[in-house]
Amino acid sequence: MRSKIFLSTLLILVLFTGLAAAAKPVVTADRTYFDISTGLYVLNGNVRIEMKNRIITAGQAKVNPVSLEIWGSGGITVTENDVHFTGDSVYVYGTKDKAKIDGGVNLSRNGLAITADTVEFNWRTKIAVFNGNVNVAQNGSHWSADSVSYNVKLNSFL
């Protein structure tokens, strides 16, 4: 079983490396296969995708090796440095460096916690836009809003 996982992971890595040399993601999962009809890799169980300095985990995911799009669900996490998002599902626009996380979204980092229905995060601008039932706890103070924009790099609200 482990040799199947290793060989599948190795195949995915070789394909990703050839198609997106700059990104070079590392992908692991309990079960993987390539769906010829959709052109997507289908990953199930303990999915972990590392790309640049980002880590995405999920219960299951589909990955487009050309566009580097990722559709993940089942208790997802998206982590970069000290920024840690959780939610029910994620869609990553790989070549655009954007992610949309839905369903009970949480952001946690030192001294800050934000919950919302959804968040869209842009890795280039480092701006996260939270929407729906937004609650913020920062250094002992708490407040709510319908929508909040937060600059991760500057650690400030816009």
Automatic annotation (TrEMBL):
Signal sequence interval, chain numbering: 1-22
Look up the domain of life of the source.
Bacteria
Lipoprotein as a keyword of this entry, yes or no, is no
Q: Does the keyword Signal apply?
A: yes
The family database entries (Gene3D superfamilies) matched by this protein are listed as: Lipopolysaccharide (LPS) transport protein A like domain (2.60.450.10)
Record's protein name: LPS-assembly protein LptD
Q: Which residues form the Organic solvent tolerance-like N-terminal domain?
A: 27-153
State the organism of origin: Sporomusa sphaeroides DSM 2875
Q: Which terms are listed as keywords in the entry?
A: Signal
UniProt xrefs under InterPro entries: OstA-like_N (IPR005653)
What's the short name of a Pfam family annotated to this entry?
LptD_N
Gene of origin? Answer: lptD_1
